[in-house]
């Protein structure tokens, strides 16, 4: 006499629910499926769970009643610190994000590659003597929008250039899209580096200074090319002193390799209230 | 650009990248909080606080997925909400102008009224769950998360996730079965799947 086909062990509630979600392994899924196929009670239990899940999933997704934002000055690393610590002998020992530009062979007109690759590194050093330093690149105070193509074009309208007296072809140019901004404007800053030997890494800092104090402008993750960097900085996001309005100096510092000092370009900037 | 790239940029202080992450997760995060705490303003406060904390702490996020991390922050804020003695707030009926998806909208006022009533009953049944089960079933059936993602958010083993979801569904089902018209055609729907 043939025996009745054996129905697999009755699945637990957890198994039935997980079966609905395709969250069982192959063996368990097969076992549950085989059992449910021959068990009206478990089929009904499964249907009930399925309908319940559908009812919850049918709840509408709602739009938030307001826009979410991030506070501009919550990141710890942006601060207004004495500029003396940044320039001169102490500065070289600071913790600083560096902008590395490594030259590659130029591929010629129409070549897909740019003239450089991008690299960033973190040079660890001592803290500045006065105040908390804001490491370039770690601050959330500014916003950077990068345009690698634009970065290699001509300098912006408001510009200052310095050259290395020991190697005049080595120059640093800092420029901005205006000399005067409202306190809510976005300042576009462009750096151009020239005369870099092949495979040279450029270490650059950007500061906005007033009356001996400065805030570091953050670098970001955007593209750089061999000839420069461009970043957009909403002034309202920078940790500037109150009152914000006043005469500032945008300072670009290119740290020369092997402890040979730095090139410092200074550009007057006015911020109006 | 995927989450990992955006997180990398945000960790370096790029608020634009973080804003993109916020844009991506604001609706699911808000809806998770909404189904947990009930009141839209409370849910928005929780979502906002979660994003603020995530922005401040983004540098501590290394290899973990942003999605699990931000939901974990928001989930903890939901628990804090109840620990402070706040209660589930009954939300007003959904304003269909604010609905962004998944809900079945129909121009028929009668059908809309019925759908609204069904949603109210579902919300009521979710509210009746304890916080652990409520969160698990919301993450699964509102947010569509996989069990392993939910385990990360809740900091519990996979088996616990499975159990909480199953028990939550059973309780919701039991609650809804009080209303005879709620599951009128269980077999037909199942067969039509």
Structure, described:
The complex is a heterodimer of chains A (273) and B (193). Chain A is α+β, with helices and mostly antiparallel strands. Chain A folds into two domains: 13-57, no CATH class; 81-272, Sandwich (Immunoglobulin-like). Helix content of chain A is 15%, strand content 33%. Chain A contains four helices and 13 strands. In chain A, the strands form three sheets. A six-stranded mixed β-sheet of chain A has the order 2-10-9-12-13-7, with no helix packed on it. A four-stranded antiparallel β-sheet of chain A has the order 5-6-8-11. In chain A, strands 3-4 form a two-stranded antiparallel ribbon. The relative contact order of chain A is 0.17. With 193 residues, chain B is mainly α. Chain B is built from nine helices and one strand. The two termini of chain B are 35 Å apart. The chains are: A alpha+beta (273), B mainly alpha (193). At the A-B interface, helix 1, helix 3 and strand 1 of A face helix 2, helix 3, strand 1, helix 5 and helix 6 of B. Strand 1 (61-62) of chain A pairs antiparallel with strand 1 (99-101) of chain B.
Features:
heterodimer, A: 273 residues, alpha+beta, Immunoglobulin-like, 4-stranded antiparallel beta sheet, 4 helices, B: mainly alpha, Rna Polymerase Sigma Factor, Chain: A, Arc Repressor Mutant, subunit A
